[in-house]
Amino acid sequence: MSQEVRGVIAPGKDEPVRVETVVVPDPGPGEAVVKVQACGVCHTDLHYKQGGINDDFPFLLGHEAAGVVESVGPGTTEVEPGDFVILNWRAVCGQCRACSRGRPWYCFDTHNARQPMTLTDGRELSPALGIGAFAEKTLVAAGQCTKVDPEVDPAVAGLLGCGVMAGIGAAVNTGQVGRGDSVAVIGCGGVGDAAIVGARLAGAARVIAVDIDERKLRQAESMGATHTVDSRKADVVETIRELTGGFGADVVIEAVGRPETYEQAFYARDLAGTVVLVGVPTPEMRLDLPLLDVFGRGGSLKSSWYGDCLPSRDFPMLIDLHKQGRLPLDKFVTERIALDEVEQAFDRMHAGDVLRSVVVF
Question: Where does the Enoyl reductase (ER) domain lie (predicted)?
């Protein structure tokens, strides 16, 4: 029997979000209903609201979430009722060419729940990243549920569902930062700060944080940055080279998603170094680089989608590191808010006043 819950809806492009009644169906085969305990307010949700992802309004927003499995559909084996889980938007298929080659983190056929959630008038909702967790309960594919230690704070655990995992993974999985490496991170929001944490966790000796906001640079230092660069006052490329013996960083992580900052990342790396793009560009952006420089500098130019993570592998490991005191996930939680405060949280995010607002149920 379907249930009615409260959820945050984006009704149309740039319209204020509002709390409405959402109809959640019983889980079908391979699906699960999750009682959401906490969900972070991510920039991706704002992009949905602004029409920057697509125009499939109305959206049920929210995707950085943790909660407890309430019920599962027939044939579900991944989780069972009562499991504490982090939700992910990369439920791997296990059968595509990436999965069959033993690289499921690149799965080309990830999936979500088949049944739609709706408004009470029957209009189908588009759940953000196939999750829709700014709601008291949500319907997802069972493979989107990753079981973790239930002792961890849900507000902390849920952040691994998107931004924090994207940043940590950009450093550890995509950039393959190693012991003694030098790393530069351009853009010190939530994803950039997570990349700093990931680089330090991987053993980087020098981590250089770059931003235009002094507040964010101070925050980056608290996350483990050894040096900071205010790009309004200093030449980013030259300063990074100066801080790395004149060579450039071994790995440069671009967490802004703009052509000008990507160009900085490209020239701020050492010869044979690695650039990782984890910032999300908009469709109209273009990049112009001399092809001879691309050839002559060698190394790798990579994009990192969701930190090249495999949730079943990475989420439990990172939660364990957090419990050991080696991964300060709690530092990412700036404030805890109610469901009806999401619109105000977007304003604070846009102003750069928070690292993460987290809706707590």
Answer: 12-359
C-alpha 245 chain-centroid distance: 32
Signed CA dihedral, 328, 329, 330, 335: sign only: positive
Q: Are 321 and 201 in contact (CB under 8 A)?
A: yes
Give the whole-angstrom CA distance, residue 226 versus residue 183. 10
CB 196 within 8 A of CB 207: yes
Query: What pLDDT digit, counting tens, does each position of 170-179 carry?
Result: 999 999 999 9
Q: How far apart are CA 354 and CA 119, in angstroms?
A: 31
Terminal-residue alpha carbon distance, the chain: 23
CA dist 120 to 9, 123, 124, Å? 13, 7, 9
- The amino acid at residue 258 is R
pTM value > 0.90: yes
Are 24 and 33 contacting, i.e. CB atoms less than 8 angstroms apart? yes
pLDDT digits (tens, 9 = 90+) for 267-294: 999 999 999 999 989 889 999 999 999 9
**From its phi and psi, is residue 45 left (phi > 0), alpha (psi between -120 and 50) or beta?**
alpha
Q: Count the neighbouring beta carbons within 10 Å of the beta carbon of residue 187.
A: 28
| Interstrand relation of 18-24 and 31-40 (parallel, antiparallel or unpaired) | unpaired
Q: Is 19 exposed, middle or buried (0-12, 13-18, 19+ CB in 10 A)?
A: middle
**Which residues have a Cβ under 8 Å from the Cβ of 69 and sit 6 or more positions away?**
32, 33, 34, 35, 79, 80, 81, 82, 83, 85, 145
Q: How many CB atoms lie within 10 A of CB 328?
A: 15
d(CA 224, CA 305) in angstroms, rounded, equals 23
Instruction: Please state, in angstroms and rounded to a whole number, the distance separating the CA atoms of residues 314 and 167.
Output: 13
DSSP secondary structure, 287-338, as one string: ----HHHHHHH-SEEEE-SGGG--HHHHHHHHHHHHHTTSS-GGGG--EEE-
Three-state SS at 56 = coil
* C-alpha dist (Å) from residue 285 to 148, 191, 281, 288: 38, 20, 7, 10
Could you give the domains of the chain?
3-161+328-360 (3.90.180.10), 168-304 (3.40.50.720)
Q: Which residue matches tokens 């009470």? A: 120
